[in-house]
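2024-03-11 09:14:02 INFO worker-7 job=invfold-0412 stage=load source=structure_tokens
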């Protein structure tokens, strides 16, 4: 009798462990299934929001998904998304090949971070899937960015190929230190040192003005991206202390007032917790990083796909 009781208890423990894992981690196969079922339209394009026929289609989404697929070794899906990229997003002009930041947008502009992410995902796919064509496309897109958006080692936010003009600003959330070699960019440590404030970072750099805040409201996704770049560059700040205090008080909100440091929204964000988890890993806070990741997954799983942005979905997946 005791033998059967022990076997039963062991089975209960095993089942409990399986369910505990499923509650904590959103596995890659779950994300793939969700993207197929809720985010992909009949033409193979990925919606910004799931189950929403009126949603937008962004180059950000293409880049994030290509990056994810290359990492997961999903060759067939990767090839399908490259086809979508070439068919729907790339525009060729006398200045080069450019990627629309949004399908149907009035302005014919690209977005720096999306272009770089797509180029580097294509390069990763070229290696993973032994496909030279992906590298050729990456080289063509990289050349366009370098020729129109880089000057004296400084890179700028976007380029309008109808007007032949680039922006005069660089948003610090597009941190370039993690880019692979070959972009011809100068070290930007001094810019991030200048941007450090108490506790939030300034978000925008302009040659004539230096760094300055984007507005009275800070967006935590942007702040976390800047914080991670500052950490990579060895720039210290008070942001991590503030973030940990918010976490210990029970909740991190999506937006805050820059002066009062009080939340201006009452909602959480899976992307915020996903990025915060990666930031905590950078700082060596493994336990906190794990707990933040769990919170990101909980938010995604508790929300209808039509209310979950693709950015939030991808950043709820535990990073390697």
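2024-03-11 09:14:09 INFO worker-7 stage=emit residues=320
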């Amino acid at each position: 009798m005791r033998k059967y009781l022990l076997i039963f208890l062991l089975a209960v423990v095993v089942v409990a462990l399986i369910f505990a894992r499923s509650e904590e981690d959103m596995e890659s196969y779950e994300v793939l299934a969700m993207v197929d079922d809720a985010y992909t339209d009949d033409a193979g394009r990925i919606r910004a929001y799931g189950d929403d026929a009126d949603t937008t289609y962004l180059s950000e989404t293409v880049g994030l998904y290509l990056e994810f697929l290359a990492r997961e070794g999903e060759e067939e899906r990767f090839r399908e998304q490259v086809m979508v990229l070439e068919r729907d997003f790339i525009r060729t002009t006398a200045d080069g090949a450019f990627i629309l930041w949004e399908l149907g947008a009035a302005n014919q502009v690209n977005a720096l971070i999306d272009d770089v992410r797509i180029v580097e995902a294509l390069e990763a796919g070229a290696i993973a899937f032994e496909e030279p064509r992906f590298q050729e496309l990456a080289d063509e897109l990289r050349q366009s960015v370098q020729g129109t958006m880089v000057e004296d080692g400084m890179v700028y936010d976007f380029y309008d190929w109808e007007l032949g003009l680039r922006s005069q600003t660089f948003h610090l959330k597009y941190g370039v230190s993690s880019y692979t070699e070959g972009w011809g960019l100068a070290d930007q440590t001094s810019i991030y040192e200048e941007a450090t404030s108490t506790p939030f970072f300034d978000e925008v750099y302009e040659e004539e003005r230096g760094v300055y805040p984007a507005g009275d409201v800070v967006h935590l996704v942007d702040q976390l991206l800047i914080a991670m770049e500052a950490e990579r560059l060895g720039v210290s700040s008070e942001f991590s202390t503030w973030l940990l205090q918010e976490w210990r008080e029970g909740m991190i909100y999506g937006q805050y007032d820059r002066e009062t440091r009080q939340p201006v929204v009452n909602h959480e964000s899976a992307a915020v917790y996903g990025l915060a988890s990666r930031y905590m890993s950078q700082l060596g806070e493994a336990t906190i990083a794990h707990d933040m990741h769990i919170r990101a997954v909980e938010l995604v799983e508790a929300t209808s796909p039509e209310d979950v942005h693709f950015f939030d979905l991808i950043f709820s997946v535990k990073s390697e």
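2024-03-11 09:14:09 INFO worker-7 stage=report msg="Residues 56-167 form one domain."
2024-03-11 09:14:10 INFO worker-7 job finished
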